[in-house]
Amino acid sequence: MSGASDKARFFLEQSIPELQELERKKIFSKDEVSSIVKRRSEFEHKLSGRGSVPSDYARYAEYEMNLETLRRKRTKRTGQKHAVHFGQKRISFILDRATRKFHGDVGLWMQYFDYSRKQKAYKKVAQILTSLLRLHPTKPELWIYAAKYVMEDQGDITGARSYMQRGLRFCKQSKDLWLEYARLELIYIAKIAGRREVLGLNSHLDEQASYRALDDSGGDHIALPGITAEDINPNLSTDNSLDQDILQNLSKTPVLTGAIPIAIFDAAMDNFKDVSFGERFYDMAIEFNNISCIGQLSKHIANALIFLDPASPASINCSIRQPLAGVQISSSEFPAILGVVIKQLRIMIETHTSLEFLDRSMDWLLSYLSAGDIDPDIRTVMIATLSRCMGQYRTIIQTKGGGSSDRVADLLRQFQERGLEKLFLSALGWSSEVWPLHSGLLVLKGSRALEGDGSQ
Questions:
Q1: CB-based contact 163:147 (threshold 8 Å)
Q2: pLDDT for 134-189, tens place per residue?
Q3: Burial environment of residue 284 by CB neighbours within 10 A (0 to 12, 13 to 18, 19 or more)
Q4: Cα dihedral 272, 273, 279, 283 sign
């Protein structure tokens, strides 16, 4: 025990010059310094003993963080100057000791990482990541976290890809890792597209396309050539002028055409051969509905799922709604494409007697109905199709049995949230007969009864 006491005393003695300076500059009073010494002594003796646990280190680091925050506030208020590195160095030393002793505790590593990241100690952050991944290479969430950090904080897509690819060597069976790798690439594409929009690179191509459209229109129109400042004064032309051929070739690179996410999807499907995973990949991809390559990517996924299992509800669902991918709900072509999709969906509703398929169809219909800028006519068509789905849902449950009361209650809540009153009342009526004692349905029925009493 004397060895533990000597060790604790050694660490305490190292902080004496700092505490003396804080007292001399009147940042902390004499009583406060004594209290700090007492608390540190308690922590150090606990850590030096044999019964220390990870939470002891975590509490000690948290205490020092709070103390450092207090010191900063008082220093700012009094106008005194004090070396900042003392507190940072002490906290880092505590967390370093913690991770060395309990290297299997991921929580301590993450506390150490988050603190160093907050202090912008980037060299230390890189060391922590390297040590953490070397000790825990089979945890996919750590590879994902590392890739996101490199991408978000440093904007380094090459480093982020490296983490993802290394992670897949150790965690090839992690579906989340494959999905997050593809998401990372789609985020990168979205960022590039956003930058091109800000710089006006897309507008040059659009303008050129509009001129071509006028040339090809024929009729009684005569297309006049555009006159620029350079035509009037050739000296204005510089070497930095935009080369349209280069811009067009840039937009056809594998990064912007979605070739990398497609390659990730193909590799993942070769590994899993799982339709449900493919559907998850599809749902993740269409979250990026604003990027130009999403139509090509979604079509590739839908075709692959149909090829793998053409009878699967997941494959059919993705195939039906695929034409809507990449089409904005406010665009002029959306109604026509939606009409084709709804027509195909209604055919499948009548022929495909699967609750699983109907569940999926109602989910994506409801997602569109939650959009605030939806056209009233489009909303009416979608509600009618949703009502048809729910009618078939009811028929299957009442004739063949099955179904989930929890799922129906969840659908009813979504109907209520979106103001689908008629659909809500109809579904509440028949579902209450099928599952008269279900708590969720009883709550919805009771709340509806209270609303009716209140309106009267």
A1: yes
A2: 999 999 999 999 999 999 999 899 999 999 999 999 999 999 999 999 999 999 99
A3: middle
A4: positive
Beta carbons within 10 angstroms of residue 108's beta carbon: 22
Asked if residues 57 and 98 have their Cβ atoms less than 8 Å apart, the reply is: yes
Query: Measuring CA to CA, how many Å separate 51 from each of 39, 102, 109, 169, 396?
Result: 18, 13, 20, 38, 62
- Yes or no: say if 127 and 92 are a contact pair by the CB < 8 Å rule: no
230 and 293 Cβ atoms separated by less than 8 Å: no
For the chain, how many residues are written?
Answer: 456
User: Comparing C-alpha atoms, which of 399, 400, 407, 431 is closest to residue 358?
Assistant: 407
pLDDT at residue 288 greater than cutoff 50? yes
* 323 touches 296 (CB < 8 A): no
Side chain identity, residue 370: S
- In this structure, are residues 68 and 87 in contact, taking their beta carbons and an 8 Å threshold? yes
Q: Which long-range contacts (CB under 8 A, 24 or more apart) does 27-33 make?
A: 27/71, 27/74, 27/75, 27/78, 27/80, 27/82, 28/71, 28/74
Residues 6 or more apart from 56 whose CB is under 8 A from it? Answer: 43, 46, 47
Largest CA distance in the chain: 102
Element (H, E) at 49: none
* Residue 317: closest CA among 270, 362, 258: 362
Give dist(CA 143, CA 272) in Å, integer.
20
- In sequence order, what DSSP letters do the residues of 64-129 get, joined into one string? HHHHHHHHHHHHHHHT----THHHHHHHHHHHHHHHHH-TT-HHHHHHHHHHHHHTT-HHHHHHHH
pLDDT, tens digit, 9 for 90 and up, residues 318-365? 999 999 999 999 899 999 999 999 999 999 998 877 899 999 999 999
Cα gap 255→252, rounded to integer Å: 8
Q: Which residues contact 63 (CB under 8 A, 6 or more apart)?
A: 39, 43
Look at phi and psi of residue 200 and say left if phi exceeds 0, alpha if psi is from -120 to 50, else beta: left
The CA distance from 420 to 416, in Å, is 6
CB-based contact 113:146 (threshold 8 Å): no
Whether 420 and 412 have beta carbons less than 8 Å apart is answered as: no
Q: What DSSP designation does 291 have?
A: S
Whole-angstrom Cα distance, residue 61 to residue 94? 6
Q: Which of 79-83, 92-96, 162-166 has the lowest mean pLDDT?
A: 79-83
